[in-house]
Design a protein that fits this description.
alpha/beta, 5-stranded parallel beta sheet, 8 helices, about 50% helix, Rossmann fold, single chain, binds thymidine-5'-phosphate, globular
């Protein structure tokens, strides 16, 4: 059970999966039904976290160590949770977050090969005070996702190999299988409206039964 009146729903998936569009469509659907909605993104969502995002995604920092990367993502997250997410949940909003802690497990854990337990420890520190939430993984073949950003300049993470993005996708599926009470996987193929219909089925169920899960199980 969560300890605040609001709800946090995080959206996850490989690059180009369509999360951002689904966050916007879900926000509009919720607002239409009278919910107060706050949308935000990771890394980012605060003045400081957006600066950290700039560092993380800048292709010029090709020397960035995996450990540095993991800590910067966790630092950006900690600021967002304290400054934006917790206050919004306390005031009763539905918070939709474009990426959250599962991105670190999928990208830095499965993608980069950092230990999942270590990442959980670092992120438990970063998430101080945040309890249960709910997660939707938009599942798409990484090759399909990569085609969607092929027409613009890619950032540091998007420039990773197809095999990196495959590990990320497999990572999300493994995380979902291990935490079915919190994570729902939605097929990301088809039109945005078709995907939204699948997403909405889960969001509506969540709002009805209040089922959420702890960030790291248990
Ligand atoms: P975005 O383009 O979806 O906003 O995400 C920025 C990139 O950062 C994306 O390639 C995924 C990556 N990322 C991580 O590697 N670890 C994290 O914890 C987060 C939040 C994002």
């Amino acid at each position: 059970m969560s300890s605040w009146p609001g709800k946090l729903i995080t959206f996850e998936g490989v690059d180009g999966a369509g999360k951002t569009t689904q966050v916007l469509l879900t926000a509009a659907a919720l607002e239409q039904r009278g919910y107060t909605v706050l949308t935000t993104r990771e890394p980012g969502g605060t003045r400081l976290s957006e600066e950290i995002r700039r560092l993380l995604l800048d292709p010029q920092f090709s020397e960035m160590a995996a450990s540095t990367e993991a800590l910067l993502y966790a630092a950006a997250r900690s600021q967002l949770v304290g400054e934006v997410i917790l206050p919004a949940l306390e005031s009763g909003s539905v918070v939709l977050c474009d990426r959250f802690v599962d991105s670190s497990l999928a990208y830095q854990g499965y993608g980069r090969g950092l230990g999942l337990d270590l990442l959980r420890t670092v992120n438990a520190f970063a998430l101080v005070g945040l309890g249960a939430f709910y997660t939707i993984v938009i599942d798409l073949q990484p090759e399909q996702g990569m085609r969607r950003f092929a027409t613009r300049e890619s950032d540091r993470l998007e420039q990773e190999s197809v095999s990196f993005h495959r590990r990320v996708r497999d990572g999300y599926r493994a995380l979902a299988a291990a935490a079915p009470e919190r994570i729902r996987v939605v097929d990301g193929s088809g039109t945005p409206d078709a995907v939204q219909a699948r997403v909405w089925a889960h969001v509506a169920a969540l709002l009805e039964d209040g089922e959420q899960g702890a960030p790291f199980g248990g």
